[in-house]
Design brief:
single chain, alpha+beta, Helix Hairpins, D-amino Acid Aminotransferase, Chain A, domain 1, 6 domains, 26 strands
């Protein structure tokens, strides 16, 4: 899909693009870090982040509070306890070419004011494609283990980590009294093959690649399962330490080896950039024979004193960079193009391929993105196509091999109606800039069988009704079940009644028993009382995410008031639409989506049947008389005494609006250490700036103790 060059974007287009990128990247982060089920290649993901960074560099005043450039990893899964990292676990910037590596070295030299011929040692080591882990040792004994999580807080996987034979429960020899060892949990190719063979034989889920298998295995609720998976570990870094056992990266990694950790034998130290690059290509050649997955080479300034001087920028250290490998490619024959329909009705074309092995993974499907991409590639059924993958689940089609096109191959005609039995019309929406979106959507919403199932999965998700024991797998089970068929949200709340009235009982179904059936019914009953914003979000209305649902809930207060307003908007009431448009962060896209949703009779019926089963709570009104009510506030820098989410929730509860960028409409900036461009902008505009202590004093709250991990 052709994208408008960043240098040609208007300010409005840039703001729209940053919003889209923030949402898309957050979704990919969630699927990769939390669900261990990525849906795009590393190359596609990296391209999204690079475009986001380029737009932010050109329009720094548009940088969003939820910008991917300020985020590491993803939210912590609710399945596990949480551990706050004593020092943040950051990500690395990426290099994609030899010249990028030379630029990295030049930036380091400029920052340190080193001459071109001054010595500068840099280490190079394989970038393991696994799951990052932080191990805390006190007095030489392992006391906790945590995943990266969002970089500040990770999942507590201590019990599982103790089952990994590469991770010592007690350190050998001399070690600092407090020492956090960081590294990567991974699965060997042999272990991956054996696991998938076992999973296939026993009817368990088959993993797409070793990284997903390693992440899924470490994050088992039953540590006994983790023990059986044969996970491995490489140590390569550290966090909090009462003393660091060395003055260089090389020395500390060697000390990790003496303490009992496996360290990568391919790690080496070089005094020239050409030496680094040569080592990168040597590792690239050995990649297929290593027995485990790597996706690049990591370079780090060796001298720890220089690392401290270089420090950090945004989400990554200045003294390190990851040199990524190019995506792997292959050719195969495309024998069909299948249209898949997602929760929001988006029609996505998927290439069905003759199976081909790419980088050790058998590939049978590849994404074609949209109708424009099919037209651009001129791809047809029967073509020989070039595909690319880089550790992803669904690779992408790069192009065709024209000379191998069979005679009579016809151009693909993208459907104008949904492939579901309703044959609902497919439409293209307008973007904020007035251009037509490349995405084609089925207008059937909940009536469309493809969308209905996915809507139900959103409905029971954590940020919606969050019904314990009722997740995606259970929705798939009940959706097709003849006795407990769940086709609408209201059906969920009628399950216990059907169970008591029917001859077939849930406790007798495979996968359930008397206790698990009772627990599920009790969990459903517990969610009959629901907050208004969660209810609005759970309906899956286009463009109405969690934040927008909260805005609507706070504005209308009760479900009856929101429903009445939505119906008026759907009926074309200009005054009701103007009232909704006046709300913060509510624009034409949301109003159009609400109007379309409530214009559909089946959607109205669905909502009415659902609400009849519920006790919908009134929205909590924000404070109207607080010292900051009505003000627009920006939080910037590294907050030490509250998380970013806590700060936002606190301000909104006091009647303030939290913005992601500083403008003339900003009333107050709360700045922590490391505040940069936003602080400068506030100074330029003469906006009041205070620190965290002053913030707590202003709102009349006690200052909490500083969190060293913030």
């Amino acid at each position: 899909m052709a994208q408008k060059p960043v240098e040609d974007l208007t300010e409005n287009e840039a703001a729209e693009e940053l919003a889209r990128l923030a949402a898309e990247i957050a979704g990919h982060d969630r699927r990769y870090f939390q669900e261990d089920a990525p849906t795009v290649s590393d190359a596609e993901y990296d391209a999204l982040r690079r475009r986001n960074a380029a737009i932010e560099a050109r329009f720094p005043e548009l940088i969003r509070e939820d910008s991917p450039s300020a985020r590491v990893g993803s939210e912590v899964s609710e399945k596990f306890g949480k551990i706050r990292h004593a020092l943040p676990m950051l990500s690395l910037d990426n290099a994609f070419s030899d010249e990028d590596v030379r630029d990295f070295a030049r930036r380091v030299r400029r920052f340190l004011k080193l001459a071109e011929d001054a010595p500068l040692a840099i280490t190079a080591e394989p970038k393991i494609d696994g799951l990052s882990l932080s191990l805390r040792y006190e007095g030489g004994a392992l006391v906790s283990a945590a995943t990266r999580g969002d970089g500040t807080t990770g999942e507590d996987v201590t019990r599982n980590a103790r089952t990994v034979t590469d991770i010592p429960n007690r350190l050998k020899g001399e070690a600092p009294d407090v020492f956090e060892v960081r590294g990567e949990v991974y699965m060997s190719h042999a272990g991956f093959a054996a696991l998938n063979e076992h999973q296939a034989e026993t009817g368990g889920p088959v993993y797409a690649n070793p990284r997903n298998a390693a992440a899924g295995s470490l994050r088992q609720l039953d540590a006994g399962i983790t023990r059986q998976r044969g996970l491995k570990f490489f140590a390569y870094a550290w966090g909090e330490a009462s003393a660091v056992p060395g003055e260089t990266q090389t020395e500390v990694v060697a000390a990790l080896g003496r303490m009992g950790f496996p360290v990568n034998p391919l790690m080496a130290r070089f005094d020239t950039i050409e030496g680094l690059i040569a080592h990168y290509h040597a590792i690239e050649e050995k990649r297929s024979s290593l027995g485990y997955d790597i996706d690049g080479v990591v370079y780090k300034v060796d001298d720890l004193a220089l690392q401290r001087r270089l420090g950090f920028v945004s989400r990554s250290p200045r003294w390190a960079i990851a040199h990524k490998f190019p995506a792997e490619q292959a050719t195969t024959v495309l024998h069909a193009i299948e249209i898949q329909v997602g929760r929001t009705g988006a029609l996505t074309p998927v290439a069905k391929l003759d199976p081909v092995t790419v980088g050790g993974v058998v590939v049978q499907n590849a994404t074609l993105h949209n109708a424009e991409e099919i037209e651009r590639l001129d791809v047809r059924v029967g073509d020989t196509v070039k595909i690319q993958r880089a550790g992803d689940v669904i690779p992408q089609v790069l192009g065709i091999v024209p000379e191998k096109r069979p005679a009579g191959a016809e151009p693909f005609s993208f459907p104008s109606v949904c492939p579901c039995e309703l044959k609902t019309e497919v439409v293209r929406e307008e973007t904020a800039s007035g251009a037509q979106s490349v995405v084609r959507r089925c207008t059937g919403e909940f009536a469309c069988p493809f969308q209905r199932r996915e809507h139900l999965k959103l409905f029971v998700s954590r940020k919606a009704f969050d019904i314990e024991g009722l997740g995606d797998k259970q929705i798939d089970l009940f959706y097709d079940d003849p006795d407990f068929r769940v086709r609408t949200p209201a059906d969920i709340f009628k399950m216990r009644g059907r169970n008591e009235a029917g001859l077939k009982k849930l406790k007798d179904k495979e996968g359930f028993g008397e206790v698990s059936a009772r627990n599920l019914f009790d969990a459903i009953e517990a969610r009959r009382t629901i907050a208004l914003d969660r209810l609005i979000f759970s309906l899956g209305i286009r463009h109405v995410g969690e934040a927008t649902a909260k805005t609507l809930a706070r504005a209308y207060g009760t479900f009856d008031a929101f429903h009445a307003a939505a119906m008026k908007v759907a009926e074309g009431d200009a005054e009701a639409a103007a009232e909704m448009d006046a709300l913060e962060d509510i624009g034409e896209a949301v109003i159009t989506a609400v109007s379309r949703f409530f214009s559909e009779e089946h959607n109205r019926k669905l909502v009415e049947e659902l609400v009849a089963e519920l006790d919908v709570q009134e929205a909590e009104k924000p404070a109207a008389t607080s010292p900051v009510s009505g003000q627009t506030i920006v939080f910037t820098g590294s907050l030490e005494k509250m998380t970013r989410d806590e700060a936002k929730a606190m301000a909104e509860a006091l009647g303030a609006k939290v913005a992601g960028s500083v403008s003339r409409k900003t009333d107050l900036v709360v700045a922590g250490p490391g505040a940069g461009s936003k602080l400068a902008k506030a100074s330029e505009l003469g906006i009041e700036v205070i620190d965290e202590d002053a913030w707590f004093a202003r709102i009349g709250r006690k200052v909490p103790e500083a969190d060293p991990a913030a």
